[in-house]
Design a protein that fits this description.
CATH architecture of the largest domain: Alpha-Beta Barrel
Helix content: 40-55%
Structural class: alpha/beta
Distance between the termini: 85 Å
Shape: elongated
Radius of gyration: 39 Å
Strand order of the largest sheet: 13-14-16-17-18-19-20-21
Number of strands: 21
CATH class of the largest domain: Alpha Beta
CATH superfamily of the largest domain: EAL domain
Number of helices: 24
Number of domains: 3
């Protein structure tokens, strides 16, 4: 920018003048006037000058010793200063600065500890000015960047820089800063800021030996409001609940938006007895008033979980986890309820065990320690294996075999079961590709049935191994199938279109089987083992199994009886017309492929499926 800052120190004007054409404004007094020839010695310099003016940047030069400020011609317009002579010295410019500014150019330059080694010292800062004087409300945010150069005495002698108005940029930055700490809908602090407030409350509580509390408040049945009225009305309900809760809090309490329908409240100086009183006050505040929305009046209630601090938690994270636990218990009771957290050694043991199991599951997935055990499903007439069910096993580093029942429930709770089902599918396809005469069935969870990625993987495997589809049966439990008939029906249709068979597992456990069996266009039903075990001694179960078998035959469905462990039960089931048996009577699940031990099955019988 040196081409814009050369000046004729001897030239002055006594009265205001128009622009001299060189890039600086000539003003009265002793303010230097820029020499046009020096400022614009060639066409390139003029183009540079025009570029700076086009982007509305103000160029200046400040002689530190004389305190003289020289400005480019657009300074008044860009900075919004009516009379440019008001800033012809550094002191006069400083009089327009907001005293609250954390930094200014004078201190930045004169107090700098850096050394000019010939190229000048770079600086950049932002501050607010009052262009028309501090006695007005007009302000502007300015970005000031440039270099200062050392003088003979070793200190700053000259500063060359550029200013630009950054009001809009500052406004955006402030908006982002606000959103980083506050919730846009309610105006409350957000979860991160709430965690800071909670941690500080715990520290203060320990320091001053005064208990405090943390509550999680959830709006009940907000999903129903979304479905019935739409998200806009649900947001109005959330905002109304927020206002009511805030209206009954004390001045020292803090409230924030914890999640979509949840608020976190930090109660200062609150004993365990006080928590109960505060909770009832919050419940009443929401319950007793109907919320007026754009769609009409909506009644709302909340559920609350609370934890006393620091007795039951000494960190914000721990307090939040335990308040969540208490809230879950409140929701399980009924709407409009409060539950205070109470320590339970049994619950803590279960939680620690679940954490260990989750770590073990992840490790097993990463180190390929999940394996398939194969249990035969035999034909009722010949007792020859027709197919094998893939039962999951986890191999520990010590080579112990852990059955699925020990870890699948935890995997389902933590959402890990989808990863497991993907791995089981991969293992099953590998087996089918290796052994061309074998048929397999595999179970998938309800989560996986709703996972399009699993279907995409199945499609990809079948595309690469065409003969796999006709030898693979996919099992889903009846309880999963009945959760969303339309979605599961679509899933079943997609799997069957790929060429695979579909079976309903644990049939009879859902209690609505007969009404929905026709809706689910499957190939096979597997009777819940609890109805087949010790069947000879249970007339009620005999009636149920006989009826179910007849119903399945009407729908042209194959039937499998599970948990067959006694020859007398098998003979009775055979008389009912059951097609296949599965149970310890015909073989336990083995990790080593059982067909390699001679139990290969008859391919013609396999095709009968």
């Amino acid at each position: 920018m040196d081409f814009l800052l050369k000046q004729n120190a001897d030239a002055t004007l006594e009265t205001p003048s128009a622009t001299d054409g060189a890039g600086f404004v000539a003003t009265s007094g002793s303010m230097p006037v820029v020499d046009a020839t020096a400022m614009n010695p060639n066409a390139a310099g003029d183009r540079f000058r025009q570029a700076v003016l086009a982007v509305e940047q103000v160029v200046y030069e400040w002689e530190v010793g004389s305190d003289c400020l020289t400005w480019s011609e657009n300074a008044g317009k860009v900075l919004g200063i009516p009379n440019i002579t008001a800033i012809d010295t550094g002191k006069r410019f400083a009089n327009l600065l907001d005293p609250a500014n954390p930094e200014n150019r004078y201190d930045t330059v004169t107090a700098s500890g850096e050394v000019d080694e010939g190229a000048g010292v770079l600086f950049q800062l932002k501050y607010r000015i009052y262009p028309r004087g501090r006695d007005t409300d007009v302000t502007a945010w300015i970005e000031d960047s440039g270099r200062w150069y050392v003088g003979p005495d070793g200190g700053p002698a000259k500063v060359v820089g550029v200013l630009r108005n950054v009001d809009k940029l500052h406004e955006r930055e402030e908006a982002l800063k606000y959103l980083s700490s506050y919730d846009q809908l309610t105006g409350l602090i957000n979860r991160a800021k709430l965690a800071d407030e909670l941690q500080q409350a715990i520290v203060d509580s320990e320091t001053f030996q005064m208990p405090c509390a943390f509550m999680l408040v959830a709006v009940d049945n907000l999903a129903m409001v979304n479905d019935a009225y739409g998200f806009d009305v649900a947001d109005q309900v959330i905002a109304a609940v927020c206002k009511r809760l805030g209206g009954v809090l004390r001045g020292g309490d803090a409230m924030g938006r914890y999640a979509g329908n949840k608020f976190g409240i930090v109660l200062a100086s609150c004993s365990e007895t006080d928590i109960q009183v505060a909770a009832q006050r919050l419940l009443r505040a929401v319950r007793d008033t109907v919320t007026e929305t754009a769609a009409g009046p909506v009644s709302a209630t909340v559920s609350i979980g609370g934890v006393s601090l620091p007795r039951h938690a000494r960190t914000a994270d721990e307090a939040m986890v335990r308040a969540e636990e208490a809230l879950d218990r409140a929701k399980a009771k009924h709407r409009d309820s409060f539950v205070a957290y109470k320590h339970s050694q049994k619950r803590e043991s279960v939680r620690k065990r679940n954490i260990m199991l989750a770590d073990e599951i992840i490790s097993a997935l990463n180190t390929r320690r999940l394996a398939i055990a194969y249990q035969p499903i035999v034909r009722a007439d010949t007792k020859e294996p027709a197919l094998y069910e893939c039962l999951l096993r986890l191999l520990t580093p010590e080579n112990e075999v852990v059955s699925a029942g020990h870890f699948i429930p935890v995997a389902e709770q933590l959402g890990l079961v989808r990863l497991i089902d993907h791995r089981v599918l991969e293992l099953a396809v590998e087996t089918l590709e290796q052994f061309k005469h074998v048929r397999l069935s595999l179970n998938i969870s309800g989560m996986t049935a709703a996972d399009p990625r699993w279907l995409a993987n199945l499609s990809a495997y079948i595309g690469a191994h065409r003969d796999v589809a006709e030898r693979l049966t996919v099992e889903i439990t009846e309880t999963v199938a009945l959760q969303d008939l339309e979605e599961i029906s679509q899933f079943i249709s997609t799997v069957r279109d790929m060429g695979c068979l579909v079976a309903i597992d644990d049939f009879g456990a859902g209690y609505t089987s007969f009404r929905n069996l026709k809706t689910l266009d499957v190939d096979m039903v597997k009777l819940d083992g609890s109805f087949c075990e010790k069947l000879v001694d249970n007339p009620d179960n005999q009636f149920f199994v006989r009826t179910l078998t007849d119903l399945a035959k009407n729908f042209n469905l194959k039937t499998v009886a599970e948990w067959v462990e006694d020859e007398a039960d098998a003979e009775l089931l055979r008389s009912f017309g059951i097609d296949y048996f599965q149970g310890f009577l015909y073989g336990a699940a083995e990790i080593q492929t059982p067909w390699q031990n001679g139990a290969t099955g008859d391919p013609s019988q396999l095709a009968a499926l």
